Amino acid sequence: MVASLIFCLGLGIGIFFAEHEEIEKQTKKLEKISQFGSFSINNKTEYSKTLPKVIAPDEKDYNKKTNAEPLRQNHNYSLKKKNHLPKWIDNSIPVFKQPEFSYIAIVLDDMGLNKNIANEVFELGGPLTLSYLSYAPNLIEQTTIASSKGHELMLHLPMEPLGDQDPGPGALLVDMKNMELNQRLNLALEKFPNFIGINNHMGSRFTSNSKLMEFLISSLKKRGYLFLDSVTTSGSVALKMGRRLSAPVVARDIFLDDVDSEKEVKLRLAQTELIAKKTGTAIAIGHPRKATLRVLKDWMHDLQQKKIQLVPLSAIAQIRLDKIN
Fold it and tell me: Residue 10 domain-assigned?
């Protein structure tokens, strides 16, 4: 009996360390192809924005209990108008950062096509960052509900991929002239208000093109939006172009559900946690799928114990951009 117990205990310990080793191995592999989003900013203009009291019902009471500090928005930009802030800051969801915590942003792409599952997303704890396809119907109605539930908004813009997949209506294509690209971009940006920026839906061919990405990122910068590189290809030039143009560009670290299974999502979330613990922040992209939402719902319950804070994408962008400021 004793021998059997010792054997079972040894087997359990072996499985635990094997799984942990596998997570570490895959994370190191991902870190080689994943770049942590950041860019260089000039030092000509400085401004700050102290975020209003949103998450804590009583700021003094909240700060007393948690030693939390408001997450401030401090960046350098060349601004045309005094005290005019970029839209990615004006439209951001304020949070209170918890000292000595790591920060994770969960972005859910392909929002807007399935209203039933959207209701499940809305009710998840958060804040999450919800990226709505530019060609989805009733976007103002859907995004208004999402905002009322405390989630941050993004525009999920289709761009041309490698291969023959159809990115969808209104996609930015590599053979388009700047005038047509600008028309499509303007139409997409007018679909709904209060979003912080865009990320690419597909786009492996488009995001690899330096000339086109220069046009896109400079256009977004002028309008005050950030760009989240979904990193659908290792050949993406988005971060490089962001540094060159002093534009707000960040990149995701992990895809949660390339394989649509709960086991896969759990593994990817574990990798996301390791990156956040190592670097301070992590950005993971998933989709509004049943398996993903089930795992996320359970995962959120244990974050406080792990000293991990779930924050909107804008908060990660602030932290990453401030590090090189």
Answer: no
